[in-house]
Amino acid sequence: MSELRMIADAVIASESGRIVYAGPARDAGSITLTGPGIRVDAGGRAVIPGFVDSHTHLPFAGDRSAEFLMRMQGRSYQEIAAAGGGIINTVRATREATEDALYEASRARLDRMLLHGTTTTEAKSGYGLELEAELKQLRVLRRLATCHPVDIIPTCMCAHDFPPEYRERRDEYVRAICDEILPEVSRQKLAEFFDVFVERGVYTVEQGERVCRCASGLGFGVKVHADELADTGGAALAAAVGAVSAEHLLFVSEEGIKRLAAARVVATLLPCVPLFLMMDQYAPARRMIEQGVAVAIATDLNPGSSNTESMPLVIQLACLKMRLSIEEALTAATLNAAHGIRRAHAVGSLEPGKSMDAIILEARSFVDLVYHLGVNPVRTVIKRGKVVAGSPS
């Protein structure tokens, strides 16, 4: 993760949106490109891969600013949820929103993500918690994918929580997920991945395993929200069910880390969450890396515990709070994140054959991603060889 190849006086050439050369300018003379194109002069500034935000809850309605004020007054996330806030608050707003309103709100967030350098993102449903509202969120993602520069990888997270109408009969909702929601999402081809929140007060390990096995049988890649608020065995479950990634992991055990490494599960860490929730505990990124776990980082964009679209902020927190080097954080935000959504063959690094997704920074060094706080370090965003945000030169 710390081995970056840095090239001074470099050229990147692409054709039809794909990189055909990335290397020293002195060796670029033999490149022959056909068809029209553009030339972008970075002016000596640093050029890095487009960010891959591999964990977001992009399509939601409403906000939870009132809860944020409660938390500023000392109420915990769990206390707020027990009082009727939390995920269920957003579920109510999302169920009530029209599909068009949900689309417009989600598009505005996606625009902000792009301005901060995100060129590929994963996006979860999970604020519907019943068939039609889940389908509505996933249809919004499909609409956005057809008209927005950012590539969207959709995840069905109908197991984000238990809906109010099933609070006292949770196993019935587990059956509804397996018998009704996931089969219909699969039939309509609305999602590539499935995610479940295994945590105290939410899904047990047994319930999580059941829905993961069901999702896997239907052809979904599996992700697990694991060990966010306590060590509940979520990491071990992710390893046992062959998950692509385990997410959060603030309280993962040493045994959980070993199992993630052995099963080659990507650990997607979300440092904005403990910051936003005013927690002291951050995911043990250093121990994971030392034990061979591939670590990715992402925003966890959502209205309750991480209200941000900024991958640069995530990189800063990964370095300052989780003790990643800047090189490790950049790898975690690009190539490792791409592995966490099965896109490393196409994005996450600047090399021939991959999509020409790149960021020109304002500075001459990628070190400014962390060194210069409180500003957006992104000058220009290029997607598939075209300037899609920021200054063209």
Q: Main sheet?
A: 8 strands, parallel
Distance between the termini: 30 Å
Strand order of the largest sheet: 4-5-6-7-8-9-10-11
Q: State the secondary-structure class.
A: alpha/beta
Low-confidence stretches: none
Number of helices: 15
Kindly provide the name of the CATH class.
Alpha Beta
**Radius of gyration over C-alpha positions, nearest whole angstrom:** 21 Å
**Helix share bin:** 25-40%
CATH topology: TIM Barrel
Considering the protein shown, what is the CATH homologous superfamily?
Metal-dependent hydrolases
SSE string = EEEEHHHHEHEHEHEHEHEHHEHHHEHEE
Globular, elongated, flat, extended or rod-shaped: what is the shape? globular
Number of domains: 1
How would you summarize this macromolecular structure in one to three sentences?
With 393 residues, the chain is α/β, with parallel strands linked by helices. Helices cover 37% and strands 19% of the residues. The protein has one domain (51-339): TIM Barrel, CATH 3.20.20.
Q: What does it look like?
A:
- This protein has 393 residues and is an alpha/beta fold.
- The protein has a single domain, classed as TIM Barrel, CATH 3.20.20.140.
- It is built from 15 helices and 14 strands.
- It has helices at residues 65-72, 77-82, 87-96, 99-115, 131-147, 170-187, 205-217, 234-240, 254-263, 272-276, 285-290, 311-322, 326-333, 335-339, 368-371; strands spanning 10-15, 18-24, 47-49, 51-53, 118-124, 151-159, 193-198, 221-226, 245-248, 266-269, 295-297, 358-361, 378-383, 386-390.
- The strands form three sheets. Strands 4-5-6-7-8-9-10-11 form an eight-stranded parallel beta sheet. Strands 3-12-13-14 form a four-stranded antiparallel beta sheet, with no helix packed on it.
- α6 (170-187) runs parallel beside α7.
- The longest helix has 18 residues, at 170-187.
- It is globular, with a radius of gyration of 21 Å.
- The model has no long low-confidence stretch (mean pLDDT 95).
